[in-house]
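Hey,

Quick one before I head out. I ran the complex with pyridoxal-5'-phosphate overnight. Inputs first:
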Amino acid sequence: MENTITGEKIKLIDLEAQHQVIQEEVWAAMRDVIENSAFILGRHVKEFEDGFAGFCNARFATGVASGTDALILVLRALGIGPGDEVVTVPNTAFPTAEAITLSGARVVFADISPETLNIDPGAAEKKITKKTRAIMPVHLYGQPVEMEELKELCQSYNLLLIEDAAQAHGAEYKGQRVGTLGDAACFSFYPAKNLGAYGDGGAVVTNDERIADKVRMLRNHGRHEKYCHEIEGYNSRLDALQAAILSVKLKYLDGWNEKRRQHAQYYDKLLSSVKNVITTKVLDKAKPVYHLYVIRIRDRDLLRKKLKEENIDTGIHYPIPLHLQPALAYLGQGKGSFPMAEEAASTVLSLPLYPEMTKEQIETVVAAVKQHVK
Ligand SMILES: Cc1ncc(COP(=O)(O)O)c(C=O)c1O
């Protein structure tokens, strides 16, 4: 079935449209890796790491196999493990919590602010115990977290601050890019991210040389030198083909993020008059990068179904808050434990957003929303 307004299908994201623009450069970059048999670490990975550190205005970026591994490796590099607790939010991708558990520490959830859907510093403070070692905020949907309050909290309780910046490449808080707002930050290059590889990839960004060095060892079997393993680590190197592709895409990232912001502002404007639709609040001091454009609406599932009938794709990020995931049932936090996160899970709806979208496509989506929201 086609949408009644223009008849075209509108995807949630369109990676093909992006590939069309950059394909010649991507093929050339891949050819360079293959023709030089430079598959493991080496020049392409180093070039990307330097470029990405520069993009974040950070001293170090270390490429790893995925965003999940970036989180696990940074926790291990910081010496966090069994007996420790790490505070994060329940409304995030599963890997945020999974990484904490895999480091050996225990996940502790804190509820979110109903306005920004990011961590509520007051709620986080209430979760601090003698075992707490770190707070791990998530810049969800590319919206920077209120970092100032969290930083003060971490300073007064002597905690580490680790940014989960998997969805926020290039986002800014008080003029500073995410990635250097805490002790270390983790990025994902999953294909759908603002900076996406053609497969998996991730990076740890930090200004702290010791953290960067430890992550560098951990990602490569705990060694600096071939055959001398100082600690037990992982095989979690950023693939050189992915690094070469990411270097091509990095040149475009600021422009793509700007397009995302323009599209989001246009959505905001068109949706401002639609009753019962709540758009996400942006902090005054923040410059978001809109990994996703998320609205909240009470009859979310019905609207989603109607939009699907109109050939408009949408997403739900995320339908089940992590404390209610079967894998985390052992934490013993049932329904009602985190009311704001639970409310978000039942009302959030991600509308189509990607840099190559046209104004007409946004108008079509909004017209369809208006048709079905009373
Ligand atoms: C907030 C958040 N954290 C962590 C991850 C994990 O990244 P990856 O899929 O690259 O392992 C993702 C992506 O799925 C994410 O969105």
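The mean pLDDT is 96.

Talk tomorrow,
K.
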